[in-house]
Amino acid sequence: MGPLRWLPLLVRLLLLRPPGARPEGPIRAFVVPHSHMDVGWVYTVQESMRAYAANVYTSVVEELSRGQQRRFIAVEQEFFRLWWDGVASDQQKHQVRRLLDEGRLEFVLGGQVMHDEAVTHFDDQILQLTEGHGFLYETFGIRPQFSWHVDPFGASATTPTLFALAGFNAHLISRIDYNLKEARQELQFVWQGSPSLSVQQQIFTHIMDQYSYCTPSHIPFSNRSGFYWNGVAVFPEPPADGVYPNMSEPVTPANIDLYAEALVANVKQRAAWFRTPHVLWPWGCDKQFFNASVQFANMDPLLDHINSRAAKLGVSVQYATLGDYFRALHALNVTWRTRDHHDFLPYSTEPFQAWTGFYTSRSALKGLARRASALLYAGESMFTRYMWPAPRGPLDPAWALQQLQQLRWAVSEVQHHDAITGTESPKVRDMYEEHLASGMLGVRKLMASIVLDGPQSPTSGCAGPAGHFVTVYNPLAWTVTTIITLTIGFPGVSVTDELGHPVPAQIQNSTETPSAYVLHILATIPGLSYRHYGIRPTAGAQEGTQEPAATVASTLRFGRRLRRHASHGASRLVPVVNDCYTVLLDQDTNLMHSIRERQSNRTVRMTQEFLEYHVNGDLKQGPISDNYMFTPKDAAAPAWEAVEMEIVAGKLVTEIRQYFYRNVTTRDYTYAIYSRLTHVPQGHDRELLCHRIEQQYHVGPLELNREAVLRTSTDLNSRQVLYSDNNGYQMQRRPYLAYSNNSIARNYYPMVQSAFMEDGSSRLLLLSERAHGISSQGNGQVEVMLHRRLWNNFDWDLGYNLTLNDTSVVHPVLWLLLGPWSVTTALRQRSGLALQHRPVVLFGELAGTAPNRPGSQKQEAVTLPPNLHLQILSIPGWNYSSNHTEHVQNLQKGHRGKAQADLHRVLLRLHHLYEVGEDPVLSQPVTVDLEAVVCGLGPMVAVEERSLTGTWDVSTLRRWSWATETGHCRGCSTFPSRSPEGPTITIHPKEIRTFFVHFRQQ
Ligand SMILES: [Zn+2]
To answer: Which one of 123, 151, 343, 919 is the catalytic residue?
Structure first.
């Protein structure tokens, strides 16, 4: 994201009076050289490497070596790793190690990317951070201690918690709502991101002032690039003569006073926003320092010049890393305000610039990113289970690990704040999609190889020669009962398990392909296990025959009903019933009418329809909507004139299909809802399956400058209060706020995994498999933005191809749960995970080969208590000693990792799913025996508790303590004291705990 987006804001802010609360005294400015390097956005990673990114590291390393006083902070690891592995010479590598030792080059944040905070899932945030930290620690023994989240569009309250867990001493953000900066929000405080973890994981937080992370590029006497003497990066190739556009005038005796005045004036303006005389002065911006030589050659004399007049100017200056600044600030021993768990979302830069469009932009990419992450999660645990206690077949572990590493990289990359946000150019989106798709292909191959590996066995009971095998892996650490859906080519089938027993199944015509059939199978799969099913064509497929055939669903059709003819009198209602709900559909409109929930015996009126915001793309006509911004002028209007309905009633699943037509006479529908209720047969676990109404949507292609929402209107007296999640980790309360302008857009919030609204007794919960924007624009209403297609004539958007002319059709899924608070509280977390981590179905990959029978390699199922989630089980492959001193000594001796992946270390992370006080039973601390958790991997020889990203032994981690108004916190300097635990551990509400586990090899 570029500096240009700041210009309107800067103009406004220059007119503002700063708070002026700073104590008297000379100012000490910390000049922190940095380059903001977006991993994607307008240019692909490869294009960026070629044009400037490689040159940043090459020239910075050389220039730092030339001046003892010079400093630089490095942020995004993806670019650094590409440079390190593919560009850097041995001499440069040697220089890097020396600069790190001397503290002149500092890695901050240390993730592969600077992840978005609004639409990313916290599992993926941890993954991308872990991926970068693992590399830094293995290669240099370095553990980043400060964050540098300068560009994400708004700040989530999950971030301070995760960064504290990763061992950071301070957190830095920048983009918060302009109103808050104008209202002189205190920009430094101690943040308690989680209400349950509270002081334990609080972290000092610095919000950048109004200038954000860029140095001013406009100074009075120069119309070029201010303090950027190296000018502007050039694509695709750096200019051969080294002369870049817009290079600032070199510092000379004639102009040095002017430069000094401009710098000092800016330092003083920034200082006025802070309580101490220490000022962070970021020197850099997007794609800077590709020619560090010219940068430092001009800044060196300028800093000397200012320091020689420090007394007169009232300002002294020094090069600094971010750590230098925070250390100096920490040493002042100031007492700070504490902030609670509220986030900084949404984010507006101007009255009509609400950055709430990107919550939905490029919905297809958002969906793919999450599916890739879920597949990786499954692949990781399946591979770990394959390797321990002993590899069960001839699979090459190095190849297997490579498949996982490739997908780890791709899933990390797409968490970037111009990636999963949908704010990138089309060619960069293609790059992310290619990386994800090829990573997914590799992991699916790996999973199929694991299934097919090992001794083959006779196939009695499984499918015969003409049939198919399907293998289904459950990646969650609980037994899951769910519906598996396959598309097959024949109308009559029987489905059997490994022992030849019939499995409940249902078949119906496909809505997508006329000659194909959809087969639903009721599968019950133990935790971290897979099961095989045989699918065999039957002759008759008649119900009531002796053969255990899949039952055939019957279809009821309801002709087109027009919106304008909707009556307001008594309705003719059609019920669809399962054990938990009765969904009533109105035959006069073909819309949903209401839902009766069995447990409370309450009927809630509920209708759903698609609406569109018609938005402006012409700058001359006023503010525009684009890939970032949502700027509706008017309320949303219905996007349909007629609806057709089909009810496909079956013994296992009943599907309600509603097709919405834009015009009365159109042949093709633009929108559809497929709602599915499951009828769980006796003897199967129905708790989760019965309680969800699965809805899959068909949305698009949209007309130009339309933003499509699904609005659900109910008679719940919600008082227009909505709850939506931060990154799938915790909920935020979102009361509707009336603004003097742009209220519709500013009441939009991100939903990453869940949202709900409620009244005194019932709650309507929505669960999601990808991020969307969500809002309550009326009492009892919730609307989910599902898709956007936009075009505008803003030169900058056109120049970079960032207008979001997205013509795709998207098929997002929501699960709806309705019920008393207590029931939905108990089900929310596990249902959310069941949607996120649906069993992996290996079908085509097995190509008719009979997989090995489970009897030959039987693994014990893994079952955790219902409030505890196995957040990861993997073999990371890092090659470093868990003992820090030993690791550093090894590095000094020249043993520099990477030689061979370490397959012995197993990474295990557990997450308590509930907040303190959320549920009388599930919110209790839970004690588990780790040996039992990972049963089947062999005898455990050692357990080490580690920081979130694995780099610290928590018993040696001493985070800084910052004084607050409520006193010095005891917990924030260290992790909560824990007795040296054996394999039995107690996990408290919302805790995330990370372990290295070692097993005895067999
Ligand atoms: Zn950026």
So the answer is: 151
**Interatomic CA distance for residues 811 and 611, integer angstroms:** 16
Give dist(CA 806, CA 700) in Å, integer. Answer: 10
Tokens of 199: 């002081």
How far, in Å, from the CA of 444 to the mean position of ligand 1?
Answer: 32
Structure tokens at 172: 């830095």
List pLDDT tens digits, range 109-155: 999 999 999 999 999 999 999 999 999 999 999 999 999 999 999 99
Whether residue 346 has a cis bond before it, omega within 30° of 0: yes
Distance 322 CA to ligand 1 centre (A): 18
Tell me phi and psi for residue 609, to 5 degrees: -150, 165
Q: For residue 731, report the distance from its CA to the centre of ligand 1, in Å.
A: 26
Q: How many residues does the chain have?
A: 1002
Phi-psi region of 917 (alpha: psi -120 to 50; beta: other; left: phi over 0): left
Q: Are 33 and 73 in contact (CB under 8 A)?
A: yes
Cα dist. 875→384, 398, 585, 872, 896 in Å? 6, 11, 50, 10, 20
Instruction: State the number of CA atoms in the 13 A half-sphere of 7 facing the CB.
Output: 7
Alpha carbons 911 and 869: distance in angstroms, whole number: 5
Identify the three-state secondary structure at position 536.
strand
**Contact indicator for 817, 827 with CB cutoff of 8 Å:** yes
Write out the residues surrounding ion ligand 1, Cβ under 5 A.
1, 38, 151
With contact defined as beta carbons under 8 Å apart, do 137 and 170 qualify?
no
3-state secondary structure of 311: helix
Cα distances from 557 to residues 192, 655, 668, 909, in angstroms, run: 55, 12, 17, 49
Spatial CA neighbour of 935 closest among 549, 527, 436? 527
pTM across the whole model: 0.95
Given the DSSP bridges, would you call strands 602-614 and 637-638 parallel, antiparallel or unpaired?
A: antiparallel
Centroid of ligand 1 to alpha carbon of 173 (angstroms):
12
Could you tell me the two tokens for 658?
């509603």
Q: How far is the CA of 851 from the centre of ligand 1 (A)?
A: 47
CA distance 399 to 391: 14
In the block, tokens 């020249």 appear at 894
Q: Which two tokens stand for residue 376?
A: 């990786």
Predicted pLDDT at 538: 87
36 alpha carbon to ligand 1 midpoint, in Å? 6
CA of 431 to the centre of ligand 1 (A): 17
Distance in angstroms (rounded) separating the CA atoms of residues 355 and 624: 12
SS3 label, residue 942: strand
Q: For residue 885, give the H/E element and its range.
A: helix 884-892
Question: Ligand 1 center to residue 35 CA distance, Å?
Answer: 10
Q: Is the distance from CB of 201 to CB of 161 less than 8 angstroms?
A: yes
CA 690/CA 579 separation, integer angstroms: 6
Q: Are 705 and 614 spatial neighbours (Cβ–Cβ below 8 Å)? A: yes
The SS3 call for residue 296 is helix
What whole-number distance in Å separates Cα of residue 939 and Cα of residue 906?
Answer: 13
pLDDT value, residue 977: 45
759 carries an active-site annotation: no
Interatomic CA distance for residues 367 and 935, integer angstroms:
33
Q: Which two tokens stand for residue 599?
A: 């447990």
Which stretches of the chain drop beneath a pLDDT of 70? 1-24, 184, 223, 454-466, 540-547, 567-568, 844-858, 895-899, 967-982, 1002
Phi, psi of 572 (to 5 degrees): -95, 115
Query: What are the strands, taking DSSP E only, across 769-867?
Result: 772-775, 781-789, 813-820, 840-842
Which amino acid is located at 887 in the chain? Answer: H
Q: What would the pLDDT profile of 569-601 be if each residue is shown by its tens digit? A: 778 999 999 999 999 999 999 999 999 999 899
The tokens describing 114, both together, are 């600077």
- The whole-angstrom separation of Cα 950 and Cα 963 is 28
Q: Give the contacts of 491 (CB within 8 A, at least 6 positions apart).
A: 507, 517, 541, 552
Supply the pLDDT for residue 682. Answer: 92
